[in-house]
Amino acid sequence: MKLVFATHNLNKLKEVQALIPSQITLVSLTDIGCLEDIPETSNTLEGNAKLKADYVTQKYNLPCFADDTGLLVNALKGAPGVFSARYAGEQKSSDDNMIKLLSELYTEEDRTAKFQTVIALNLNNESLFFEGIVEGEITTRRKGEKGFGYDPIFKPHGYNQTFAELPLQVKNDISHRGIATKKLINYLQKLF
Ligand code: IMP
Fold first, then answer.
1. What pLDDT score does 125 carry?
2. Which residue CA neighbors atom 20 of ligand 1 most closely?
3. What integer is the mean pLDDT of 111-125?
4. How far apart are CA 147 and CA 172, in angstroms?
5. Rounded Cα gap, residues 171 and 135, in angstroms
6. What crossing angle do the helices spanning 176-189 and 10-17 adopt, rounded to 10°?
7. Helix spans in 61-167 (H)
8. Pocket mutation for ligand 1, best pick of 71, 91, 133, 163 (most atoms within 8 Å of C-beta)
9. CB within 8 A of 114, min separation 6: which ones?
10. What percent of the chain shows pLDDT beyond 90?
11. Closest Cα to atom 23 of ligand 1
């Protein structure tokens, strides 16, 4: 089965590809010649994931899934949440986002937070959703070079390292995207 993952983010692609079984051929937006930035205009993770998956299915007539992720910080009442990519502005810079978040939490004792991913699958023009959540905390400074986005300042509960220090397989075992992707794969495998 050929399935499009609607992302331009090579780190996400690498994480998801590592989990996909051989019965599924994963193709990226670049592989299908979709070079545009698909608008994410919804104010929910579900809405944005569905917008991206539906855009590809309608334009390219291929089954497609897309993910949308938010970092929800308890002391900030769930912010930045669905606005995580643009937290420090439209430039969508991970460096700027981390600087802003660390400064917002500078004097904060409650540093608990969670990543939430929603995957929307468009298969035969039907939408299905798969969710993954990982709880953890925001560190006081960046650590690690792996991963992307907020990984250098997110330490999952039960671990002493940030997502940017942990190997990809460990992140995939416990992460928001890993959990949501495994639910998606489980669903697809029942169709074979
Ligand atoms: P989106 O799902 O690509 O819209 O991601 C929203 C924001 O969360 C962006 O700033 C991403 O860099 C960040 N993000 C998404 N997934 C992860 C992750 O697995 N680790 C760290 N940051 C992430």
1. 87
2. 151
3. 97
4. 11
5. 12
6. 50
7. 94-104
8. 71
9. 71, 72, 133, 134, 135, 136, 176
10. 97
11. 149
